[in-house]
Specification:
Length: about 140
């Protein structure tokens, strides 16, 4: 069993999965879709969930910097409901503030072109979201990181 991390945008969905020990997150892919056509993601997500024995989904929660809930966060909460209804898997909301900034900075340090950064930023953001959750859960269980 593995966990899956998701970074939902208006046209992309970054996806990361954990290793079987639920210790390390890795980028899997980025799905592209028509603007806000979130239901089109259900088929590909179903395949990923089955192929990787996903037992929990960690969904990035894009709260505003002042901790308020904006339009993107409301859309993400609706997507959470869709996922739970379709897959009957627990979906955990993970604060994702600054993950895209962190992702871009990592990719800049790797000296990737603007085009390559754009292709990789969502997957890396999903990895950061999932790794943050795994690290916190490991600490809660007494595991040293």
């Amino acid at each position: 069993m593995r966990y899956m991390g998701l970074d939902l945008g208006s046209k992309t969905l970054g996806i990361a999965i954990s290793d079987t020990t639920k210790t390390i997150a890795n980028v899997l892919t980025t799905l592209r879709f028509k603007n806000e056509d979130y239901k089109s993601l259900l088929g590909p997500l179903s395949d990923i969930i089955k192929e990787n024995s996903i037992s929990k989904i960690i969904l990035g929660y894009p709260k505003n910097m002042d901790n308020s809930i904006g339009e993107r966060a409301k859309i993400t909460l609706e997507f959470k409901k869709i996922l739970e209804s379709k897959f009957k898997i627990e979906v955990i909301m993970e604060d994702e503030r600054l993950t895209s900034v962190i992702s871009n900075n990592i990719l800049l340090e790797a000296d990737l072109s603007r085009k390559k950064r754009k292709q990789k930023v969502d997957g890396l953001a999903a990895e950061i979201i999932l790794q943050s959750y795994l690290d916190r859960k490991g600490e809660d269980c007494g595991r040293k990181n």
